[in-house]
Amino acid sequence: MEEFRKMFELVRPYWRRVALAGGASIIVSALSGSLAWLVKPIMDDIFVKKDSFLLMMIPFLVFFIFFVKGIFLMLNGYLIGSVNQKMVMNLRNRLFSHILNLPVGYFGKSSSGELISKVVNDIALLNGLVSLTVKDLLIESCTAIALICVALWRRPDITIISIVALPGAFYAIGKLGKRIRQISRRSQEKISHITEFLNESFTGIKILKAFSRQQDENERFEKITRDYYRENMRATRVGETGTLLMETVGGIGIAFVMWYGGRLVITHAMTVGDFFSFLAAIFLMYSPIRRLAKVNINLQQARAPFERISQLLAEPQEIAGAKTLGHEINSIEFKDVSFTYSESKHKALDSLNLTVQKGEIIAIVGRSGGGKTTLVNLLPRFYQPQEGKILINSTDITGVTFKSLRSSFGIVSQEVILFNDTVFANIAYGKPGADREEVVRAARAAYAHDFIMELPQGYDTIIGERGTRLSGGQRQRLSIARAVLTNPPVLILDEATSSLDTASEVMLQKALENLMSNRTTFVIAHRLSTIKKASRIIVLDKGRITETGTHQELLGHGGIYQKLYELQFSSQES
Ligand SMILES: Nc1ncnc2c1ncn2[C@@H]1O[C@H](COP(=O)(O)OP(=O)(O)OP(=O)(O)O)[C@@H](O)[C@H]1O
Ligand SMILES: [Mg+2]
User: Which of 398, 440, 449, 481 has the greatest number of C-beta atoms within 10 Å?
Assistant: First the structure.
């Protein structure tokens, strides 16, 4: 019941339209009732008394009733349709905006395929069902009531007897509704597996081909679609059982009415007109009642996607503070920061203390899994430490707005994120409204201008999904240009480990040096040249800072740094 209330909440903002549609429904129902009502004069006055004036009038009247009914049906359909489309559009928008404001950690728990499926498939399912339900509830219940009134007027005793069987049928169908809900939930999970699978296959198409997995992936996909098919067939079977049930109850009711009413006509207890008018009402009632019985099934079917969407909407969003951080960043301080990823057993960062002053270049080195990426990810609050705090200019970062905090950092990560748009739009991503001149200047600083000019449409070239039409080094330089353009006071670099060819490497180095000048920089360093330039090196191991100092200072220590140096960096010395 609680959920039905929530579902109707969705429709509430459009109550005016729904009320208008309700008005139209009442008129449609009254007209349907009047058709059944008219059967009596047709029978008694035209067929029995042979009234020729009435014979002239009736066709016009019938046409008029149908025509007016058509107009109001159309109006009702239009109003409900618009409520429906609006509701779906707004719910989709709300869901998308909600998802965008969920913490980064959430995206590790929920696959993007699943999220896409919720925004596309689950909402699509609500689209049909809510409108059907509202429309059915409005029109069909009004019509059923109008017709019951006509039937009652004509012959109260049989009407009551023939309606008595209905609650039993409704109850049985209600039972089916429960089954439908379970099936519908599973079915929505299955379709989200399909989107998930498609998403992964297309993103990983190169790997898929490289390992010649087409055959296996095909088979896996066929299994998923077969599961989905089975679930839907189950729903179809249960739904059609409901149809059979209604037909049976309807058949029994109408057979009884025919027999009993026929007897009343033969014994002259009832006129032929009364009987047929009554019969018409019962026949016309049949379809609305069947649809009403199905309303529950439809509602149950809508419940599963609705639950999935409600759960997602109930996920807590990231919480920002109210202060704005100035553009000038003088100090960054980690104070006893500990962080554990959700569902992880060990601390990724363990009581970390670090103070960085303006203009410093901090190189972060350490074994894989030591917590380097985690450390820099805490700065823009992609994750929230469980213990300790991070202060920027002595202000706790949880107290400042995301916009001012995040615009303080330029992030050039190892894995470059580009969008399927023009080169220009990709560079200007962090600064909407940037003009041509600024963008070109940024591209020059990133050593990207020359290769951009060689592209077919220069800055207006579309670079393909995730920048697939560019080389790895080119992609990296675009992301540097993007960072240059926003001119952030603090830079976070996750240096590429993959070796580029020497020319690209040199250009990339120069681009990075341009970017680093006059900024505070955190660099996860894999190159000796960067490390040597750093004002301080910190060595992270198992989430703790084990050593800190300059290259020269650390070399003599005989600690992890020295080992790392011998293993990793000494080959780069030339
Ligand atoms: N999203 C995540 N969810 C759960 N655990 C994670 C997540 N990301 C990283 N970890 C774990 O946290 C620890 C630190 O990871 P982190 O990515 O910070 O290492 P790193 O020092 O950057 O390593 P690398 O040099 O290989 O990039 C690792 O044990 C890793 O398994
Ligand atoms: Mg890392």
Answer: 481
Number of other CB atoms surrounding residue 178 within 10 Å: 13
Let me know how long the chain is.
574
All domains of the chain in start order, with CATH? 2-314 (1.20.1560.10), 325-408+490-501+510-574 (3.40.50.300), 418-487 (3.40.50.300)
Q: Name the strands in the sheet holding 387-392, side by side, starting at the edge strand that comes first in the sequence.
A: 349-357, 331-339, 387-392, 395-396
Using only C-alpha atoms, what is the Rg of the chain?
36
Q: Is the CB of 543 under 6 A from ligand 1?
A: no
pLDDT mean across residues, the chain: 87
372 in contact with ligand 1, CB cutoff 6 A? yes
Tell me: the pLDDT tens digits for 13-64? 888 998 898 899 889 989 988 988 888 888 888 888 888 888 888 889 999 9
Q: In whole angstroms, how far apart are CA 7 and each of 213, 298, 314, 342?
A: 44, 13, 15, 32
Whether the CB of 489 sits within 6 Å of ligand 1: no
What's the gap in Å between 347 CA and the centre of ligand 1? 10
Do β-strands 349-357 and 361-365 pair in parallel, antiparallel, or remain unpaired?
Answer: unpaired
Give me 61's structure tokens: 């009247």
Q: Is 415 in the pocket of ligand 1 (CB under 6 A)?
A: no
Tokens (6 digits) for 73: 């049906």
Rounded to 10 deg, the angle between the 272-314 and 141-154 helix axes is 160
**pLDDT bucket at 78, cuts 50 / 70 / 90:** very high
Residue 373 CB less than 6 A away from ligand 1: yes
- Sole residue written with tokens 């999220």: 115
For residue 120, give the nearest of 186, 188, 182, 183 by alpha carbon.
188
Q: Helix 272-314 crosses helix 166-203 at what angle (to 10 degrees)?
A: 40
Question: Ligand 1 in contact with 103 (CB < 6 A)?
Answer: no
Q: What tokens appear for 3 in the block?
A: 């959920």
Residues whose CB falls within 8 Å of the CB of residue 569, separated by 6 or more in sequence, listed in order:
527, 528, 531
CA distances from 435 to 23, 198, 476, 551, 564 (A): 55, 38, 22, 42, 45
CA of 368 to the centre of ligand 2 (A): 7
Protein residue with its CA nearest to atom 2 in ligand 1 = 341
- Å from CA of 487 to ligand 1 middle: 28
For 390-442, write each residue's pLDDT tens digit: 999 999 999 999 999 999 999 888 778 888 889 999 999 988 888 999 999 99
Residue 328 CB-density burial (10 A; 0-12 exposed, 13-18 middle, 19+ buried):
exposed
For 124, the 3-state DSSP assignment is helix
Q: Which of 381, 416, 419 is nearest to 401 (CA)?
A: 381
> How many angstroms is it from 375 CA to the middle of ligand 2?
9
Stretch 516-536: mean pLDDT: 84
| pLDDT band, very low/low/confident/very high, at 102 (cuts 50, 70, 90) | very high
d(CA 26, CA 32): 10
